[in-house]
Amino acid sequence: MNEQQNSKARPSETTPDDKLHTGSDGEVTAEDLILASGRDVTPENLAWAERKLAAEGPSALDKLLP
User: Fold this and answer.
1) N or C terminus: fewer CB in 10 A for the chain?
2) Which residue has the higher pLDDT, 24 or 47?
């Protein structure tokens, strides 16, 4: 078996938690929210993102990502 095959999870194995999450440990910014929504960074979108973050907190980003 080659090294690449060894690095793949077997169907009977659980995927490690650090492989399942892609979020950063840092603070979610309004710009993060805008980019995750597929919008351009504009003053109007910044205002929208800031309101959304104030209302929903960092989970606002989780709701936008698949």
Assistant:
1) C
2) 47
